[in-house]
Design a protein that fits this description.
The chain is built from 8 helices and 3 strands. Strands 1-3-2 form a 3-stranded antiparallel sheet, sandwiched between helices.
């Protein structure tokens, strides 16, 4: 025997959906199956499709950005997370060099550059590569800092 919803219940369901409740939550509250509610769903407004807000891996990336000023990423799904962050925070920048990708905040690019230099695993780094990296991050290291990076890499210290 098919389950029929009264006009009052249909109106109640419509209000709940408009207020943000999912069809799953509504089916639990009414005590009817999702299949039954699904038969009537074409008559009710739906929530907008797509993801609203920042959550999951994107939220973790945002936390790293706020705590450290930078975060590293490798997977293609991280690129989508970057676009989500860029949508809400236009100051987030991304760069890729020698197979290593990093997101960083514009105002903390010096910290990101230092972390990036430590992350790329090259035994020898020359002045030209260091110049390219500082150009990417739009910063300038002092002569002492430049020598520390070149010396550490030459000595094999990471």
């Amino acid at each position: 025997m098919p389950y029929h919803l009264s006009p009052a219940k249909k109106a109640w369901i419509t209000r709940k959906i408009k207020s943000g409740k999912s069809k799953y939550q509504i089916s639990l509250e009414l005590g009817i199956s999702q299949v039954t509610l699904g038969k009537y769903k074409k008559f009710y407004p739906s929530q907008p499709k797509g993801r609203n807000g920042i959550r999951g891996g994107t939220l973790r990336m945002l936390q790293d950005l706020l705590n450290n000023g930078y975060t590293f990423f490798d997977t293609p799904s991280d690129s989508q997370k970057y676009y989500t962050l860029k949508k809400y925070f236009p100051t987030v920048q991304r760069t890729r060099y020698e197979g290593c990708s990093i997101l960083f905040l514009e105002d903390r690019s010096d910290l990101a550059a230092k972390a990036f230099l430590m992350k790329i695993r090259k035994n020898i780094i020359n002045y030209q590569e260091l110049k390219n990296i500082t150009k990417i991050f739009n910063i300038e290291f002092s002569k002492k800092e430049k020598m520390s990076f070149i010396s550490k890499k030459r000595l094999g210290k990471n």
